TrEMBL record:
It is found in: Membrane. This is Pyrrolo-quinoline quinone repeat domain-containing protein. One of its GO terms (cellular component) is membrane. Residues 1-21 are annotated as: Disordered. Its main location: membrane. Keywords: Membrane, Transmembrane, Transmembrane helix. Transmembrane segments: none annotated. Residues 147-363 form the Pyrrolo-quinoline quinone repeat domain. PANTHER family: IG-LIKE DOMAIN-CONTAINING PROTEIN, PTHR21419. Coiled coil: none annotated. The keyword Transmembrane applies.
Amino acid sequence: MVGIGPPGEDCTEATSEPRKTQGGRTMIRYQIVGLMSVLLASAILIPDTGAQPILLWDFNTSGGVYSAIPVNDVDGDLVPDVVAAIYYSDPEPNLYCVSGTDGALIWASSDCQGTWGNQALAAIEDVTGDEIDDVILGTPGGIAPGSSVFLKDGADGTTVWTWCTYTQGPNWGWLHEVAPYPDVDGDELPEVAAAAGGNSSDRSGTVFLFDGESGDTIWTWRVPLDGAWSLAVIADINGDDADDIIVGAGGNSLDNRVWALDGPSGSSIWQRDLEASVSDVAIIEDINGDEIEDVVAGGWADYVACLDGTNGLVLWTRDIGTIIMELSIIRDVTGNGIDDVIVGSWSSSVYCLEGESGEIIWSVWVGSDNWSVDALSDVNGDGVDDVAVGSLNGYRAVCLSGVDGAEIWSYPTTERVYDVSSAPDLNGDHLPDILVGLQDHGYAPTHLLAFDGDALPTPEITLLLAPDQRQLLPGETLSYRATVYNNTQTQLSAWYVAEVELPNGNPYGPVVGPVNFVLEPGQMKSRTLSHTVPPTPPLGDYAYKAKVGNPPNTVIDERSFPFSVVLEGE
């Protein structure tokens, strides 16, 4: 292999694509300049030690935090901020926006109820015209402000519009999930999708599509027999070039189906019975080769099912043995190019399932009732994304290795953990961080916490590596993006060098450098590097290892990513 050179001088604005997390919810796009960069698939070469995490900040709410999400910068410091909803029956305020930098209060709202569960809070691109993204909240409970959908101005928390199922129908029911949906009415603003349950007089729930600007209903669709319990937006599955909507029905085990609805009209495309209430649905990239996204679902039937996005046919199932609470899609763990599935349930273990087959990659004991799970970009150094877990009755938040479930860090709590969420970099180390929401029974002084994702001090220079692909044929090109950041306010000079670990464990190289580079205070430099795989290389698993530092022995930061060389058809 031949090296093409070190990170260059072409500084770029970092942008990440939307990613689906926690039951198919779409995290909005982050555009953070310079130090607040895209979360790239990279690795720090450290062992999984089960270290104590670094608490970045905590915030005292009026009740237990049942849902917390990152949002684009609200307070102007170029760092993403955080919105959190408390339990619906706890005292006001019910909704908070706090600084991602230090947890300082930005605004609080008292004209809404909180939430029930962690799927009825979502960010949406700006609909008010102030260039600050807004917030969707779905509330449970009785009359207004319960059983309502709220569109909140992200800048100050004021209500833009609301729809109450109790007074405006078509049937009174709690809101279980909300999500942004692409523009369908031509005003170039996103719409709002929502899933609501029924009531003791009429069990039939409702799926809504609201005009994002006005809150008027574009359409409603009634679940025939039970509540609309979960919801996710999926790329076009019926050929009309518009996104569609997947709904999980349930609540009373009267309608146990996954439904696919046409996005623009709300008409039914297909349905699939999963034998019991469907508590979560998530969208996974195509796994059966038809170039259409597929669906992962789970609930009270104690198994996870993967369904063909085009017709709902079952591609695989995996029995977990207990109620499924939350599903999160994690970027390819096994290196086969297909994303995988993290399962949160009433089990004491967390499961990672192979996306193509449903086979268990790993299962790890964490603590009783691991209701909340989320995938996050790699923090522990193996080049594979990792996992955040909230153990409800295990009373701890945990970060696990995506490769094998090994504990990276664990934080014991005195309250139940109701929610964990991956967040973009909050502390300037260019790695994802983790938000934790706790129940409020008076045992902990604060209930919203933000943790450093990797539990390590920030180095003077951060190095990130982002490979284009991790499985190659002989003669193909291995390309990756190398990015370096100066985390200090002084000019720094360092060297970049890279080598390859061969399948037999021997090092090969250096394949790049050592090459010197200079970073001005706070500067980022990034460049794409590439290598051609020889025509007859050793087949098997490789590791690409790079470091920045100063000769002869000073290493400032190290990164790696795995890749494999296979023959065509393997």
